[in-house]
Design a protein that fits this description.
TBK1_CC1; Transferase(Phosphotransferase), domain 1; ATP-binding; ATP binding; 47% helix; 4 domains; EC 2.7.11.1; elongated; six-stranded antiparallel beta sheet; transferase; 752 residues; alpha+beta
Length: 752
C-alpha cells in the first residue's frame, strides 16, 4: 500500500499503466471517497522540467464535465514522487466498451451519440483554452454512469497536451500509433527524419479514427497482419488514401487495398446517422493538413447532428426501418424530402400511420410538433405506389465466423472465443431485427386494412344514401310521366323526351350503384382473407422461442469465455485444467453452431415466409386502395348526376304550365302546409303534411302551378289516389285548424 497525506491505495489496484506513470484506484483517508491517482515513475523525471510541469498546468486550467477533474497534486511518502489526484471513472474507458464482445461491431446508435456529444464538448473546451491534446484515443476517454443511468465520457491523460493556438505549430511527437496523424506516424513509428511541423488538426485525425472505431468496432486502416506488424503498409494506406475514403483494408499479404467510402453494413448505426457522419469522417481523415477541416467547421458539423431530433419511420411497402434526423424547426416538407432520400418514395406518394391510425402531416407543421416516435413505436410509411419489399439489410453472420485451432493455446483460444461471442451477439441482434421487422409488417398492414375496411363502410353508407335519393327520384319520375301521359297523351312533346332521358340516366346510376356494391363486397372479402393470414402470422411470432434459445446459448458461452480469460492470465494449465479447457472449447464451438442453426433454420425462414407473402399482400392492398379511390370519385359523380336529375324534375325544367294552364286553383285562406292521405303512396301511413311549393303565387285569388312539383301537389290536393276515379272534376276539400277554417277548390285535370 502507498499513500500521500490525504489518500491511500493498494499497488495491485491498477486502473491503467503508461510509459511515464501508473494510475491506481485510491481512497480519501477522511471521507472514503474513491479517486484515481496518477503516480509518475522514474522515466517521467528524465523528461525536461518544462514537460513534467505541463500536465499539471493544463489540468489546472481546465474545468468541464467532459474532462476528468483534477482534485489535488500531492507527493507519495518518502519517495516524494508527484501524484495527481483525479476524478475516478468507475465504468472504465471507451476502449473497455469497444473490447466488450457485445460491441465487436461498434456501439449502439444511442451510445455512439453520447460519445459524439461528450467528446465534441470536451474538445471544444480544450480549443477554447488553446490546448491541443495530441493523444486522443478510446483508452483516453473515460466513462462513468450519470445519475440518470446514461453514460458520461470524459477526456483524460493530458501528459502529451500543451497550449497551442490554431495558427501555431509543434515539432515534438506524441500519441498512440494506430491513431497518429500520418505525418507524425512517419517520424514516430517509422523513424524517418523530417522537418515537418504539426498543427492542431492532428487531433482531428485522431478523433476521426476514434469515431470510426466507436462506430464500426474496428480501426479504419488495417494492413494485412495488423497495424503493429505491418507498419510500412499502414503508412502507405493512410498517406495514399483517396479523397473521400474513410477506410482501407488489406486482406491478403501484398494484396490490394480495399477502399471504402461508407461505414460497413455490420455497423449498428442507422442509415440516417451514417449519412450525417460519413462526410465528417471523410473531411477530418484527410492527410493533407491544408485540405483537412479546421476545428470550427468540425464543431459546426458535429453540433448540427447533435441538435437534430430523430423520428423513427418504418416503410411498410419496403419493410425497412429508418431514422430521420431533422431540426426541430424544419417543416413537414423537409421531413418528407429526408424520408425520400432514404426510401426513394416521392413525397406526394407518402402516407403515414401512427399508433394504428392515419396520421396527417400539415405541410407547414414544424417537426417539434410532430408526435414523438420511438424504435418500438415508429411512424408507419405507406407508399401509394406499389413497391417491392426490401427487408432488413444484413450480412450473414455465418460468413467469416471465427474458428478454433485444434491445439490448446490459452491466448489464441481466448481471443477466438471473444470473436465468437462478438459474432453471436451480432447474430442475436440481427435475429431481433428480423423479428421486429415481422412485427412491424403485420402490425402496419393490420392498421392499413382496418383503415380500408372503415373506408368501405363509409362508402357503403354514402351509397345507401344515394340509393334512397335514387328511389325517390325514380318514383317521382314515374308519377310525373303518368301525369304527362294522362293530360297530354303520347303526342311527342319534348317534355316527354326529357323525362325519358331522366329515366335513362337514373337507370344508369342504378346499374352503377349495384356494381359498386358488388366491388365493395369483393374488397371486404379480400381484406378479411388477408387479416386472417396476419392473425396466423402474429400468433406464430408471439409463440416464437428462437430468440430465447439463442440467448440461453450465449449465456453458456459467456461463462466459458470467462474461464478462458482466467486461463489466459495463468498462461500455463495443469493437465486436468487443460482437459477441461479442451471440453469447453468443444462446447463453445457446439453452442456457436447451434446459434447459427437456429438463426438460419428458424429465424430467417419465418422472416422470409412473412416477407415473401408481404409483397403479394401489399400489392392487393394497394390495388384495393386505388380502386376505392376510383369508386369514390365515381360515386361522387353519380351523386352529382342524381342532383341534376332532381333539379330537372323539381326546378321547372319540365314546366307544368304547358299542361295545366287551362286549369286554375281557387284559394280561400290557404295554410302553409296541407294534409293529405298518404294512401296516395303505396303502403299508406295515415295523414301527413306537405309544404306548398314556392312557385305558387299567393298574391291572387287564383293559384297557377308552374312546375312539375306543383302539379304533383295539385294531384295530391285533388285527392288523386285509388278512390279518385269516382270524384267529380270539381273537387272540394275542407280542413279545420285551431286558428282558421280554409276551403280549397280545384278544377281537376286528373280523371280516368
Amino acid at each position: 500500500m502507498q499513500s500521500t497525506p490525504n489518500y491511500l491505495w493498494y499497488t495491485d489496484d491498477v486502473l491503467g499503466q503508461g510509459a511515464t506513470a501508473c494510475v491506481y484506484k485510491a481512497r480519501n483517508k477522511k471521507s472514503g471517497e474513491l479517486v484515481a491517482v496518477k503516480v509518475f515513475n522514474n522515466a517521467s523525471y528524465m523528461r525536461p522540467q518544462e514537460v513534467q510541469l505541463r500536465e499539471f498546468e493544463v489540468l489546472r486550467k481546465l474545468n468541464h464535465k467532459n474532462i476528468v477533474k483534477l482534485f489535488a497534486i500531492e507527493e507519495a511518502g518518502s519517495s516524494k514522487q508527484k501524484v495527481l489526484v483525479m476524478e475516478y471513472c468507475s465504468s472504465g474507458s471507451l476502449l473497455n466498451m469497444l473490447e466488450d464482445p457485445e460491441n465487436a461491431f461498434g456501439l449502439s446508435e444511442a451510445e455512439f451519440l453520447i460519445v459524439l456529444n461528450c467528446v465534441v464538448a470536451g474538445m471544444n473546451h480544450l480549443r477554447e483554452n488553446g490546448i491541443v491534446h495530441r493523444d486522443i484515443k478510446p483508452g483516453n476517454i473515460m466513462r462513468l454512469m450519470g445519475e440518470d443511468g446514461q453514460s458520461v465520457y470524459k477526456l483524460t491523460d493530458f501528459g502529451a497536451a500543451r497550449e497551442l493556438d490554431d495558427d501555431e505549430k509543434f515539432v515534438s511527437v506524441y500519441g498512440t500509433e494506430e491513431y497518429l496523424h500520418p505525418d507524425m506516424y512517419e517520424r514516430a513509428v517509422l523513424r524517418k527524419p523530417q522537418q515537418k511541423a504539426y498543427g492542431v488538426t492532428v487531433d482531428l485525425w485522431s478523433i476521426g479514427v476514434t469515431f470510426y472505431h466507436a462506430a464500426a468496432g474496428s480501426l479504419p486502416f488495417i494492413p494485412f497482419g495488423g497495424p503493429r506488424r505491418n507498419k510500412e503498409i499502414m503508412y502507405k494506406i493512410t498517406t495514399q488514401k483517396p479523397s473521400g475514403a474513410i477506410s482501407g483494408v488489406q486482406r491478403q499479404e501484398n494484396g490490394a487495398i480495399e477502399w471504402s467510402y461508407e461505414l460497413p453494413v455490420t455497423c449498428r448505426l442507422s442509415v440516417g446517422l451514417k449519412s450525417q457522419l460519413v462526410p465528417i469522417l471523410a473531411n477530418i481523415l484527410e492527410v493533407d493538413q491544408e485540405k483537412c477541416w479546421g476545428f470550427d467547421q468540425f464543431f459546426a458539423e458535429t453540433s448540427d447532428i447533435l441538435q437534430r431530433i430523430v423520428f423513427d419511420v418504418f416503410s411498410l411497402s419496403q419493410a425497412t426501418m429508418h431514422r430521420v434526423f431533422i431540426h426541430s424547426h424544419n417543416t413537414t416538407n423537409i421531413f418528407l424530402d429526408a424520408v425520400f432520400r432514404q426510401t426513394n418514395t416521392a413525397p406526394h406518394h407518402q402516407e403515414y400511420f401512427f399508433e394504428g391510425y392515419p396520421y396527417d402531416l400539415e405541410p407547414n407543421l414544424q417537426a417539434q410538433n410532430f408526435s414523438r416516435t420511438t424504435q418500438n413505436s415508429p411512424l408507419t410509411l405507406l407508399s401509394t405506389e406499389t413497391e417491392d419489399p426490401i427487408g432488413v439489410r444484413y450480412r450473414d453472420p455465418a460468413h467469416g465466423f471465427p474458428k478454433f485451432v485444434p491445439k490448446v493455446d490459452v491466448i489464441a483460444d481466448c481471443s477466438i472465443a471473444k470473436g465468437v461471442l462478438g459474432a453471436v451477439h451480432q447474430t442475436l441482434r440481427i435475429a431481433r431485427s428480423l423479428l421486429k421487422c415481422q412485427e412491424f409488417i403485420l402490425r402496419g398492414l393490420h392498421c392499413v386494412i382496418e383503415s380500408l375496411k372503415s373506408e368501405c363502410s363509409k362508402f357503403l353508407e354514402r351509397k345507401e344514401t344515394a340509393v334512397l335519393m335514387l328511389t325517390c327520384l325514380q318514383h317521382t319520375n314515374e308519377k310525373t310521366l303518368m301525369v304527362y301521359e294522362s293530360v297530354s297523351g303520347s303526342n311527342g312533346n319534348p317534355e316527354l323526351k326529357d323525362l325519358a332521358e331522366v329515366k335513362a340516366r337514373l337507370q344508369t346510376v342504378t346499374e352503377d350503384l349495384f356494381r359498386y356494391s358488388h366491388s365493395i363486397s369483393e374488397y371486404q372479402g379480400t381484406l378479411g382473407d388477408i387479416l386472417s393470414e396476419l392473425v396466423n402470422h402474429r400468433q406464430q411470432a408471439q409463440e416464437d422461442r428462437s430468440i430465447r434459445q439463442m440467448e440461453c446459448c450465449l449465456e453458456k458461452m459467456q461463462l466459458i469465455h470467462k474461464q478462458f480469460k482466467k486461463a489466459r492470465a495463468c498462461m500455463r494449465l495443469a493437465y486436468n485444467e487443460e482437459q477441461i479447457h479442451k471440453l469447453d472449447k468443444l462446447n463453445l464451438g457446439h453452442l456457436a453452431r447451434k446459434v447459427i442453426s437456429i438463426f438460419q433454420d428458424d429465424c430467417v425462414q419465418k422472416y422470409q415466409d412473412v416477407l415473401g407473402g408481404h409483397g403479394n399482400r401489399m400489392r392487393k392492398v394497394c390495388e384495393i386502395k386505388k380502386h376505392l379511390k376510383k369508386l369514390d370519385s365515381s360515386l361522387s359523380a353519380g351523386c352529382v348526376e342524381l342532383t341534376e336529375c332532381w333539379d330537372c324534375l323539381h326546378n321547372g325544367e319540365v314546366p307544368a304550365t304547358t299542361i295545366i294552364s287551362p286549369h286554375v286553383v281557387l284559394l280561400q285562406h290557404l295554410p302553409s302546409h296541407i294534409p293529405f292521405k298518404s294512401s296516395s303512396f303505396e303502403g299508406g301511413r295515415g295523414v301527413e303534411y306537405m309544404a306548398l311549393p314556392r312557385d305558387v303565387d299567393l298574391g291572387a285569388q287564383h293559384i297557377t302551378c308552374s312546375s312539375v312539383k306543383s302539379l304533383y301537389l295539385c294531384r295530391l290536393w285533388t285527392g288523386c289516389h285509388r278512390e279518385s276515379r269516382s270524384l267529380p272534376l270539381l273537387y272540394q276539400f275542407t280542413h279545420k285548424t285551431p286558428n282558421r277554417v280554409w276551403h280549397l277548390e280545384c278544377r281537376s285535370f286528373w280523371s280516368k
